Amino acid sequence: MAKSITHNREQWQSKWGFILASAGSAVGLGNFWRFSYLVGMNGGAAFVLVYLASVLVIGVPLMIAEFLLGKLTGLSIVSAFRKISGNRKLWVALGLIGVVASFVTLGYYAVIGGWVVGYLGQSLSGNLPRDPATADAAFRIFSTTPALQIVWYTLFSWIVATIVSRGVRAGIEKYNRILMLMFLMLLTGMAIYALTLPGAREALSFMFKFDASKITPLVTLLAVGHTFFSLSLGAGIMIAYGSYLPKKITLPFASIVISVIDVIVALLAGLVIFSIVFSFGLFPDSGTGIAFVTLPPLFAVMPGGTWLATIFFFMLAAAAITSAVSILEVVAVYLMDEWKVSRQVSTWGSAIAIYLFGLIWTANDITLVDKIAGGYLLVLGALAVALLVGWVVPLSNLAKLLQTKATHPVLRGFYFLNRYLIPITLVWLLLSGTF
Ligand code: PHE
């Protein structure tokens, strides 16, 4: 099925364009708002170590698996699941989990994206909250006054939809190149600057002080859980991006590079945030509080603070846009592959539907939806991917795609992980409900 569509499918212009776009998806608000705090609260280096292990044995193999499914079928998640399973209803339904997860996640992700763009506007005009005592109230007013933030939410959603509507090369790849390269340069600059601050030492010890006794089952579950959100796995994103791949590409290499970029960005973001916060003798807040409540008044009193704030919120905006683009692409390409509508119709249609649905979070707390869509649904989606690759796709097919022999030890390891270790860990995570 869908032969004619796969035939004319767009492809990435270059290998690095594809790698940057996938890294752009992985690097997002999660790197700023989740990772650093998880590290700080869960034993510093102990968490970092468990997280690295989780990225290596669960994240990378799953990313390779998603790319493979896309490349193998030349289709997006639902159609790919349908094709590989021989049109079995159960697998089609499992594929839909990814589309639903993307739809719901983008709704609240874009609301936060709107806050970021709004704060970028405020830092450019020198209007960021300056007083620590009132920064919390200022943020609460900002984030609960629908009229105020609908402007920013609309702007953010429009930027994302415009990029996706232009297609794989002229939209997704082109803007990821621009935004990601700027992002990586600015973050490196900011991290070097952060090292000169008085709080840098404390920041480093907060993040890297190793305490082996802190490696507990809970920490392990938190680290594994964060892997999916951070690497954008389980929502069909990497399947879609994999379906635009030309024949010649080494997927394991690409997956490792993307994961390494994501981890390094998270560590540098933590270094920047904690160095500033500790320089003022404060304790880092969790979640969105760090960016919108704790940091703005600190920027206001730092030398060159207006610049720092502008760069900081620009980086967040770039990271949020490139991730949101990838999430919208899943829903858009689902409509293109399954319902055979044009890119314009599918992009704007899904963007408007998601926009209307997401309006809910311009006036409500996102904690629960983040747990359900950004936690449970992604893990369910990831479980389906692992089972499909580990149990349904014949090993000989995988070997052909990875241009190796079925007996190659790395391939056998990859197969084993997707067949046993990953599903078992994910079921453990789902049953524990640690999100
Ligand atoms: N990986 C992105 C981040 O860290 C968010 C994301 C989650 C993107 C799920 C796609 C799917 O912010």
UniProtKB/TrEMBL annotation:
Is-annotated flag, keyword Phosphoprotein?
no
Topology relative to the lipid bilayer, per the entry, is: Multi-pass membrane protein
Q: Does the keyword Lipid biosynthesis apply?
A: no
Residue ranges spanning the membrane: these are 16-33, 45-69, 90-117, 137-163, 175-195, 215-241, 253-278, 307-333, 345-363, 375-393, 414-431
Cross-referenced InterPro entries: Na/ntran_symport (IPR000175), SNS_sf (IPR037272), YocR/YhdH-like (IPR047218)
Q: Name one GO cellular component term.
A: membrane
Which is an annotated Pfam family here? SNF
Q: What keywords tag this UniProt record?
A: Membrane, Transmembrane, Transmembrane helix, Transport
Subcellular locations according to the entry: Membrane
Q: Which PROSITE patterns match?
A: NA_NEUROTRAN_SYMP_3
NCBIfam families given for it? Na_transp (NF037979)
Q: Which PANTHER family match?
A: TRANSPORTER
Q: State the name under which the record lists this protein.
A: Transporter
Organismal lineage:
Bacteria, Bacteria division Kazan-3B-28
